Amino acid sequence: MVRAMVSDSTSSKKQVEVVYNPDERINKLADEVDKEAPLSRLTLFSPCKINVFLRITDKREDGYHDLASLFHVISLGDIIKFSLSPSKTMDRLSTNVSGVPLDDRNLIIKALNLYRKKTGSEKFFWIHLDKRVPTGAGLGGGSSNAATALWAANQFSGCLATEKELQEWSSEIGSDIPFFFSRGAAYCTGRGEVVQDIPPPISLDIPMVLIKPQQACSTAEVYKRLKLDQTSTVDPLGLLEKIKRNGISKDVCINDLEPPAFEVLPSLKQLKQRITAAGRGEYDAVFMSGSGSTIVGVGSPDPPQFLYDDVEYQDVFLSEQLFDSELWRNGKVVCLVSEVMSSNLGNNIFACESKTVNNYPPQTPCAPD
């Protein structure tokens, strides 16, 4: 809000106060859009993922690597608010954190541009990203945001595309994005874009702690240092079967990107070693997610005490989470938010409003094929 005071000190004229409130103007514009559109605003939960195991199996001719991984969503995620914009030329993105690009470098904007390109839609949006998932963490926060944006654009446009089409299109802007059109757990191959939905192989009430140092790992640099002849030789399908039979253990949580990531960021190797030693008997497994730099301790929500005691770790990101979230109960990764509640363990961090959009999540024109 901007206030301007005008007065005449040489006379007895009254002071005049001029008030300009840009938020009020924006809300009035949004209200005008609301009158004309059957759906004008959406608030969505955008969950992140961890890689329970990640095998790199080959290098492709196109320069990418083939992988085989168990992706699983967890209860941590961002909240994204979408509103139809009266603009016919551009989207506008805002966020609660610094350092996040707000132009077409952001996957949200890339996803909206992709949707318009594929469908011919002429709708543009105001988007606010309430960022809770750290960037450069190996948790797929940006990829999840992109999937959420595609899903939202499709809802606003009357479901011009099937979800299978959205999933296929999404691989054009990111290898991890197709996973977020799954039902929460998937065996992913290819670059990560080949997604095979599976029933939840892990007890959903297992707690975990996420520990991410301030430093991030460059995915490109990690892959650059990867040596295929030094990766694990364990059959990834065998790992999946072991998890289904016996659950999480250190023997199955293999990540072939750990050694190159530890070369890029030697302090990350030390952090994992200290967490493993301090949490012996407390964690079922300690491993890095994706290309880093998040270390995951599964089996306990409690971070090791040294993370609180050592000045070196005073700036680490700590988050207690669960494999469980409302995602499974609603059978969908992207979910409507009706109320956001605070909870250390992520229980009920969002609630789904089944009647907000086409009585979602029951069968709708946008339901999976």
Automatic annotation (TrEMBL):
<dbReference type="InterPro" id="IPR036554">
    <property type="entry name" value="GHMP_kinase_C_sf"/>
</dbReference>
<dbReference type="Pfam" id="PF08544">
    <property type="entry name" value="GHMP_kinases_C"/>
</dbReference>
<dbReference type="InterPro" id="IPR006204">
    <property type="entry name" value="GHMP_kinase_N_dom"/>
</dbReference>
<dbReference type="GO" id="GO:0009507">
    <property type="term" value="C:chloroplast"/>
</dbReference>
<dbReference type="InterPro" id="IPR013750">
    <property type="entry name" value="GHMP_kinase_C_dom"/>
</dbReference>
<keyword id="KW-0934">Plastid</keyword>
<dbReference type="GO" id="GO:0005524">
    <property type="term" value="F:ATP binding"/>
</dbReference>
<protein>
    <recommendedName>
        <fullName>4-(cytidine 5'-diphospho)-2-C-methyl-D-erythritol kinase</fullName>
        <ecNumber>2.7.1.148</ecNumber>
    </recommendedName>
</protein>
<keyword id="KW-0414">Isoprene biosynthesis</keyword>
<keyword id="KW-0809">Transit peptide</keyword>
<keyword id="KW-0150">Chloroplast</keyword>
<dbReference type="InterPro" id="IPR014721">
    <property type="entry name" value="Ribsml_uS5_D2-typ_fold_subgr"/>
</dbReference>
<dbReference type="InterPro" id="IPR020568">
    <property type="entry name" value="Ribosomal_Su5_D2-typ_SF"/>
</dbReference>
<comment type="similarity">
    <text>Belongs to the GHMP kinase family. IspE subfamily.</text>
</comment>
<keyword id="KW-0067">ATP-binding</keyword>
<keyword id="KW-0547">Nucleotide-binding</keyword>
<keyword id="KW-0808">Transferase</keyword>
<dbReference type="InterPro" id="IPR004424">
    <property type="entry name" value="IspE"/>
</dbReference>
<feature type="domain" description="GHMP kinase C-terminal">
    <location>
        <begin position="253"/>
        <end position="311"/>
    </location>
</feature>
<keyword id="KW-0418">Kinase</keyword>
<dbReference type="Pfam" id="PF00288">
    <property type="entry name" value="GHMP_kinases_N"/>
</dbReference>
<dbReference type="GO" id="GO:0050515">
    <property type="term" value="F:4-(cytidine 5'-diphospho)-2-C-methyl-D-erythritol kinase activity"/>
</dbReference>
<feature type="domain" description="GHMP kinase N-terminal">
    <location>
        <begin position="106"/>
        <end position="182"/>
    </location>
</feature>
<dbReference type="GO" id="GO:0016114">
    <property type="term" value="P:terpenoid biosynthetic process"/>
</dbReference>
<comment type="pathway">
    <text>Isoprenoid biosynthesis; isopentenyl diphosphate biosynthesis via DXP pathway; isopentenyl diphosphate from 1-deoxy-D-xylulose 5-phosphate: step 3/6.</text>
</comment>
